[in-house]
Amino acid sequence: MNFLRTLIIALGLAVTAGGEPDQVRPNIIWLMAEDMGRDLECYGMPGVQTPNLNRMAKEGALFTNAYCSNPICSPNRSAMMVGVDQTVINAHHHRSNRDLPLVAPYKPITSYLRDAGYTCLLGHDLVMGKGTKTDCNFKHTATGAYDGVKNFGLFDKRADFTAADQPFFSQIQLQVTHRGDWWNQVRKDAKDPVSLDEIKLPPFFADTPEIRYDWAAYLDTVEYMDDEVGQLMDDLKSKGLEKNTVVIFIADNGRCNLRGKGYLHDSGIHIPMIVWAPGLVKAGTVVEELVCTTDISATVLKLAGSEIPDYMSSKPIIGVEKPEYRRFVRSARDIWDEIDECSRSVSTKKFKYIKNYMPEVPWATNQAYLEINRPALWVMRRLNEEGKLSDAEMTFFQERKPEEELYDLEKDPDELNNLAKDPEYAEVLKEMRSHEAEWLSNNKDLGLDDLGRRRPEIGLSAEVARDAVRKEQPELWDRLVSGELLETHAWMNKYGSRKMREK
């Protein structure tokens, strides 16, 4: 048997009597954990146990340098759904443009998949909340037909994957790692909760009981999510679908804590990525090359045998003989709720460059969503007022951001030593600026075009809830300010609706 025929069989392809391959297209499952960094056991995170994702990595490929194009859920999800950076398709501001269709020629990747004969499924009953979040910053509905004019459905149906739907593309959101009122209960119900003594906090966090508890509770949700992944893989195998299914696991952006979600440092954009594809990916593969989450979009289309549109600059990284990995990944941050912000970053395997177009906006703003969902923020504010923060812990609380940041990720993975003004790194800074200039020469950045003319939305549910609890429930507010992890989404449900009634 020649090499090509062996490869064809290994990839799960049928061979016709005439010897020509007739491809059996794989099912594709895309799992998205919400708001989670590379905080898995297989990435070396202390204190957490993730046996199911460990197994996926052992049987598949673990990517060590996967980055997202935005550190906030909806802009990055928009980019992944289209396969194009959010700043190009006018989806760069969080929860924006929900009434504006994508402009031609851009289309959701699910439109191409359906044209290629795939059934596009959303969610699964085995995961918290059914896993049906879409959250894209262009006109869309979760299900239904799509033509971009009168019909804007992304998926065929909300349903578990089944053999009858083959070939299928199933996107499943893993909600539990997102900040939510379930965190305390998840920890309470855990058979083996994460030990406060076994975790390791980043050096830019103060080490206090409140912050340790919050970090451990977060890792408890990671373990809960890992169990969901195990259940999904068991379901796949029980239905006899495991031999012709590719499973891609990522987080939609970095962890939901200080310098994480919403920020262009590695804890906000450097994410986990595991691809499980028996016969297509060699077991135990570790990929250290740079990839962006939009490359997954191109990969999905390639695996499906679908058209990859010319406007998609991302490249497939699985299912091709020689993947075209990136020399750098460009990411962007723009409006998040009531906070106007504009920053751009370039990540290579060794260095990170950040250009802050609004340095007068500090990292530690008074953003309502952070104030009611980041216990560490209140604890460290108090310690800062008392003069008890170390230099590393003070990083997040500077009065303004530098105009430029440059970090050596090998020597300084926590990005604490800004080298932008260090003469020894002048050539590196020049090279990183040139990467940004190269990206801009090939792409339009609508977030730079609208700079100075933006109108962040004021009076969102987090703002209304924060202000109401502070005024009407002072004892509850004092508990929040003390650093206690509280069920604050219930506040938004209770008080946030008040704004809608007043409209």
From TrEMBL:
<comment type="similarity">
    <text>Belongs to the sulfatase family.</text>
</comment>
<dbReference type="InterPro" id="IPR017850">
    <property type="entry name" value="Alkaline_phosphatase_core_sf"/>
</dbReference>
<keyword id="KW-0378">Hydrolase</keyword>
<dbReference type="InterPro" id="IPR050738">
    <property type="entry name" value="Sulfatase"/>
</dbReference>
<feature type="domain" description="Sulfatase N-terminal">
    <location>
        <begin position="26"/>
        <end position="305"/>
    </location>
</feature>
<dbReference type="Pfam" id="PF00884">
    <property type="entry name" value="Sulfatase"/>
</dbReference>
<dbReference type="InterPro" id="IPR000917">
    <property type="entry name" value="Sulfatase_N"/>
</dbReference>
<protein>
    <submittedName>
        <fullName>Sulfatase</fullName>
    </submittedName>
</protein>
